[in-house]
């Protein structure tokens, strides 16, 4: 080791996606010298292969679907301009160029080290650079692992030769496949089936279970399945892929029920795995390839010394970009406090506690219709033995919803703690419901009593009037007991 290839910082961050960027921003703002290590594009999965490009593909599809249901709008049923949609997607992914993100790091005062970073013992990171050298980074206070997750592929024979799509290929493809097989029932499967069916592909979706979006309220998956079928997609439940092979320009698929399919491409949207397989975890006593378990300060619990942190997908607490950024802000504050000797505030909802990961995780699924969810589901309440009152309301009875579509199909559900009289879960399905979610998140995170929510008057005619209808329905349910 020579002096010129060894550098010392207060903080070393591995991974320059939104999570790593937020950790680095907070520690730099606190006066700690920080370097961030990235082997691919600065900006990470969200910017180039997930959130930004996927929503760019979905927004035209959802808008066309909604416009087609508005009386008097003749263009609603017109096919999408595929080239224009893909060009918009390319712009939203910055044409897979990270110059803008690199410039942001520079202006924020964060150093960037290109290359693949691996832990090399306590507070040490070795970076294999693109030029073939090695840079050794020494952290005086903290190393933060923000490497995210990658697609988890099934154990099928000949997978390498199959060259299947994962979420990356699905969001960056340069043209719609004529026929696309989507394997999975979760968010990626539902969203990509929605997007590519609208862009002209014939989608066949294969689900192991009996419904879409199984982690959400059942009505969510039912409504999305209904719309996908109306759009022409073929949905098959209770079936898996036994084998698949690339042949010529397409893919041959054998199903567990004996059926066979041919397609141009096959997308596996069957879960996520942590990006920790080549991270040097063994040098600090951890197992390569594992998720990194943390406490609510995002300190890795299995490593002594309070120097190793994990934020974002890699800790498996909430695999969502916005939650990862939330975790990053807290982790950055924790690192700064420990570096200055300041006591931590780890009480629930405290400055240094990731309480929202346990109680108020918001998620939007950008399908037709949109799905918006935060807090407990009825299945989670049942599984954990928590007593809740469930309140349902048909969104099609809200005047604001009818302005979207006279035949509006949607549903709202609130879960209420009857003892504390606070909302602990909220779930919406229907066009335009994504914008309802933050109010629900505020109600849950703020633990706002129902008596106070009565004074939050929703404007008429908007979909947000459903809040009043849920309260009225709950009042009437209670009165009938």
From TrEMBL:
Q: Give me the comment on cofactor binding.
A: Binds 1 FAD per subunit.
Keywords, ordered alphabetically? FAD, Flavoprotein, NAD, Nucleotide-binding, Oxidoreductase
Sites binding NAD(+) sit at 184-191, 271
Organism (species): Nonomuraea thailandensis
Mind telling me what this protein is named? Dihydrolipoamide dehydrogenase
Cite the binding residues for FAD.
55, 117, 147-149, 313
EC numbers listed for it are 1.8.1.4
GO BP terms, alphabetized = 2-oxoglutarate metabolic process
Q: Which residues form the FAD/NAD(P)-binding domain?
A: 9-323
Q: Which Gene3D superfamilies match?
A: 3.30.390.30, FAD/NAD(P)-binding domain
Q: Which cofactor does it need?
A: FAD
The family note in this entry says: Belongs to the class-I pyridine nucleotide-disulfide oxidoreductase family.
């Amino acid at each position: 080791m020579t002096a010129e290839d060894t550098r010392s910082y207060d903080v070393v961050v591995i991974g320059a996606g939104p999570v790593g960027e937020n950790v680095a921003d907070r520690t730099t703002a606190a006066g700690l010298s920080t370097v961030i290590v990235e082997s691919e594009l600065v900006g990470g999965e969200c910017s180039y292969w997930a959130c930004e490009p996927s929503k760019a593909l979905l927004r035209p599809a959802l808008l066309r679907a909604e416009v087609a249901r508005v009386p008097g709008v003749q263009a609603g049923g017109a096919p999408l301009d595929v080239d224009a949609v893909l060009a918009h997607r390319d712009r939203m992914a910055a044409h897979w160029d990270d110059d803008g993100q690199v410039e942001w790091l520079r202006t924020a005062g964060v150093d960037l080290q290109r290359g693949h970073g691996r832990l090399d013992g306590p507070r040490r990171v070795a970076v294999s650079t693109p030029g073939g050298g090695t840079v050794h980074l020494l952290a005086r206070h903290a190393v933060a692992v923000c490497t995210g997750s990658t697609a988890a592929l099934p154990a099928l024979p000949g997978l390498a030769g199959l060259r299947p799509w994962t979420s990356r290929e699905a969001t960056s493809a340069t043209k719609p496949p004529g026929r696309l097989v989507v394997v999975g029932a979760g968010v990626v499967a539902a969203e990509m089936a929605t997007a590519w069916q609208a862009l002209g592909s014939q989608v066949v979706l294969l689900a192991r279970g009996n419904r879409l979006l199984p982690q959400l309220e059942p009505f969510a998956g039912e409504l999305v399945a209904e719309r996908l079928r109306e759009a022409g997609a073929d949905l098959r439940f209770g079936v898996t892929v036994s084998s698949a092979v690339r042949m010529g320009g397409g893919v041959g698929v054998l199903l567990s029920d004996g059926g066979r399919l041919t397609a141009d491409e096959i997308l596996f949207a069957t879960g996520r795995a942590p990006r920790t397989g080549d991270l040097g975890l063994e040098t600090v006593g951890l197992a390569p390839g594992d998720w990194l378990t943390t406490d609510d300060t995002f300190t890795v619990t299995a490593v002594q010394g309070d120097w190793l942190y994990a934020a974002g997908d890699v800790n498996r607490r909430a695999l969502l970009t916005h939650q990862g950024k939330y975790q990053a802000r807290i982790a950055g504050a924790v690192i700064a406090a420990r570096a200055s000797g300041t006591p931590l505030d780890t009480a629930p909802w405290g400055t240094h506690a990731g309480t929202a990961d346990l109680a108020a995780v918001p998620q939007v699924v950008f399908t037709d219709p949109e799905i918006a969810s935060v807090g407990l589901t009825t299945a989670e309440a049942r599984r954990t033995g928590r007593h809740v009152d469930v309140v349902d309301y048909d969104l099609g009875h809200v005047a604001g919803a009818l302005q979207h579509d006279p035949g509006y199909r949607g549903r709202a559900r609130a879960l209420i703690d009857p003892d504390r009289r606070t909302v602990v879960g909220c779930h919406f399905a229907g066009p335009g419901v994504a914008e309802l979610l933050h109010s629900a998140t505020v109600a849950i995170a703020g633990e706002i009593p129902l008596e106070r929510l009565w004074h939050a008057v929703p404007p008429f005619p908007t979909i947000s009037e459903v809040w009043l209808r849920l309260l009225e329905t709950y009042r009437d349910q209670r009165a009938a007991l």
